Amino acid sequence: MIRIAALVAVLSATAALAQSNEELEKRERCAVRVAIAITGKGPDAELMASIDPQARADGLLDTTDFIERYARFINTQFNRTPGAVAEQDSAYYLAWEILQKHRPWKELFLGPYRVEKNGADTVVVSADPQGLGYFRSSAWLKRYAGNEPNGVKLSTAYRIFNNTIGLKLVPSTNTPDADVSSTGRQSVGCRGCHYDSLYALDLAASVLGKRVGTGDEMTFSPPDGTKVTLLGGATVKDDRELVTALVESEAFRFRTCRLAFNYLMGRNENRCEAPAFERCMKEFRNDGTLQAAVAAIVKDPAFCQ
């Protein structure tokens, strides 16, 4: 009986040790996943030794590694290609500022800032009561002024929709002899996107003023104050009212959380990750910072499974 009891004790100890080792390996794998997903780098010794690596997400979200990496990620999502000059990548510079100061993410689009070149090689973010995130920065305005014959800022309107709520459109025609005038855009194949939809690009562009001239001589005329109705009932008369309506929508919060998923996982969310996505939407709605949205996903129980 003594030998049996001793054998049972040995087996129990072995099982406990195996369980302990398995739990340790699980925590270490989680630490690696959390660190790489947030910062792009492996975990330090302190994180590797943590009993709950997911609880350490907030600290990683305050690091320069995360801020730099997310700002670059956002710049790739908001622009088709890198800017020809640094100041054209205004989303990168302002995202860095917003993240570093833990400001509400909506300030990236609505905040009193201006992103401008200062000197030969320096781009700075400065306070500007008339600023509208990076949307009124001159290099960005010129980059997305578009080439509409009468100066209508269709490209600007589309880029505002894309950056804030993730709208993606593909032109229905791109032939050299296509009628791209305002009259041509009212044809059957075009007016759906330009005049009749919730985002109606021509209507949105009409409150943005117009491009005057091209190249270095390009300037912009102000809107005439005429109001238009978009987005299922929002009445807007200028760029600030348009962007405000977009940023206050549920589509903006959805876009923010989808970007967070893409940043962390390299893909959109799937059905089984709906609880994490809903938590992201809730935390972002309540807190307003991008860090809160990302942390909600990382801290979800399924993130390290």
What can be said about this structure in brief?
Helices cover 50% and strands 7% of the residues. It contains 14 helices and six strands.
Question: Topology, pairings included?
Answer:
Layout lengths: L1 H38 L5 H4 L8 H4 L3 H15 L11 H11 L6 H4 L2 E5 L5 E5 L10 H6 L10 H12 L25 H6 L4 H5 L4 E3 L6 E3 L6 E3 L3 E3 L2 H9 L2 H16 L8 H14 L2 H9 L7
Antiparallel strand pairs: 1-2, 3-4, 5-6
What would you say this structure looks like, in words?
- With 305 residues, this protein is mainly alpha-helical.
- The chain folds into three domains: 82-143, no CATH class; 145-248, no CATH class; 250-298, no CATH class.
- Helix content is 50%, strand content 7%.
- The strands form three sheets. Strands 1-2 form a two-stranded antiparallel sheet.
- Helix 13 runs antiparallel to helix 14.
Q: Helix/strand/pairing class, anyone?
A: mainly alpha
Give the DSSP E fraction (strand runs of 2 or more residues): 5-15%
How many whole angstroms does the radius of gyration measure? 25 Å
Major sheet: 2 strands, antiparallel
Outline, from the CA principal axes? elongated
What are the salient characteristics of this protein?
mainly alpha; 305 residues; 3 domains; two-stranded antiparallel ribbon; 6 strands
